[in-house]
Amino acid sequence: MANLVSDQEIKNLLEKDLLELIGDADLPPQKKQELYAKMAETVQNRVIARIYDQLSEEEGQELDRLIDSGDKNQVDEFLKNKNLDITSLLTQEAIIYKAEMVNLFKANRAPDSP
User: Could you tell me the pTM of the whole model?
Assistant: First the structure.
């Protein structure tokens, strides 16, 4: 089976900072922090959506109640009992987001074809 992307592209995606990959590594620190905060919020929202997608409506309501109670231990236990690995979901969504952003910036920076 042919590789869709090179080993180097995969290595870069996994190891390099997103801003470096899209050519914005030299942004001012304040701007970088703003972008990182927006990226983190996007990834977190995607993880939340994936969690709720894997729960029934009743389970989603139960999770809402636990979150509203403010008891992080109960939330963690609930997710663990549902076999939802938050660390894995965060990692998956972060990599997917990173790949999407790199591809978007590549497409927008590519010269127009005739």
Answer: 0.76
